[in-house]
Amino acid sequence: MPSAIDVRKVPIHSVADASELTKLLDDGVFKADRVVAIIGKTEGNGGVNDYTRIIADRAFREALVAGGAEPDKVKEVPIVWSGGTDGVISPHATIFATTDAEPTDEPRLTVGYAMSETLLPEDIGRVAMVRKVADGVKVAMERAGITEVVDVHYVQTKTPLLTIHTIRDAKQRGQTVWTEHTHESMDLSNGCTALGIAVALGEIEMPTDADVMHNLDLFSSVASCSSGVELDQAQIVVVGNAAGVGGRFRIGHAVMADALDQDGIWDAIRNAGLDLPERAHHTDLKGRLVNVFLKCEASQDGMVRERRNAMLDDSDVHWHRQIKSAVGGVTAAVTGDPAVFVSVSAAHQGPAGGGPVAAIVELD
Fold first, then answer.
1. CA gap 340, 345 in Å, rounded
2. In whole angstroms, what is the distance from residue 124 CA to residue 118 CA?
3. CA separation, residue 93 to residues 9, 45, 83, 147 (Å)
4. Catalytic residue selected from 41, 132, 158, 295
């Protein structure tokens, strides 16, 4: 049985700042060698060349080593950064660490981690990637001590996207790639990964290559997929609940039907275990909400609540940044805290134009 999990959210004061993690370690909140995952938002452009993710990754790993963790072990800790804090979204990190707690039969937060097989550039956007991700999710579930798929509430991944270099590599080996547009490959990598998660959890049957990015009726309600240039495998963090692990935290999930669906966020918080009024206000949370994790997507019909918007036609500001900013504002209004994990590019992650929501709460 895996250990109980302690989870804390900390602000990031500058792009290379990990001082709040260091403070937690210095204060003995948890030990550096017991940190098992970090998920955060950095303040870059969120695109292919968003190097703030690499800078933040280095800062947090160096803080863990300085705190006493072995360097080789620190290299293996999954640290997933989503770039882009558009609008009111505030840079922050959510840190997961094992802790000693009395076992309980009540479901409590558990975390499992896995790396997929190497993802070749020609795999991205195709069934080969779906299979490799699905296999990795199953390994992460097992490591989390989760035996039933209904107990999985959040799967955060980081996968490679296509770059000029990897596209050239595929061609030199006589292979083809799904797209030669590197920015488009971000959406592609995320969407294909989500299908792998959905297959692993029995949400859908194995799709075909033709389904990827086209059949948006196929989606996962718990997938949160990011991509970048930092790796060539799928880095998979499965978060759910399991009896017997103990601890004070629990996770739940729901989906937003569209970009304005505040009820979807409240549903996730309730699903995690908080008893709230029917028309809740952020003051009802009383500090018990650790964080929420959302994916969002501009609806491909250019509409929200039967009103037209121009995000998809805007040549000045990419729709990625616009929808992230909008949903970030909606989410912060619900939680009363701008340090929320809102990530864009949600193809096959929740219903079209909406997205999945996961919430971690601290129980009484």
1. 16
2. 11
3. 6, 17, 12, 28
4. 158
- Residues in a beta bridge with 35: 97
Catalytic residue (choose from 189, 226, 343, 345): 226
**Confidence band (pLDDT; 50, 70, 90) for 364?**
confident
Tokens representing residue 56 in the block: 């933040």
Cβ 299 vs Cβ 256: under 8 Å: no
CA atoms within 13 A on the CB side of 355: 29
Percent over 70 (pLDDT), the chain? 100
The owner of tokens 């809102």 is 342
pTM of the model: 0.96
The residues, ordered by sequence, that sit 6+ positions from 160 with a Cβ below 8 Å of its Cβ are 119, 121, 124, 166, 189, 227, 228, 229, 231, 232, 233
Q: What pLDDT, in 10s, does the model give residues 13-45?
A: 999 999 999 999 999 999 999 999 999 999 999
- Judged against a pLDDT cut of 90, whether residue 49 lies above it is answered with no
299 is catalytic: no
Residue 230 has pLDDT above 80, yes or no: no
Task: Kindly give the pairing relationship between strand 249-256 and strand 307-308.
Answer: unpaired
Q: What is the largest CA-CA distance in the chain?
A: 60
9 belongs to the catalytic site = no
Rounded alpha-carbon distances, angstroms, from residue 238 to 37, 115, 153, 295, 332: 10, 11, 8, 16, 24
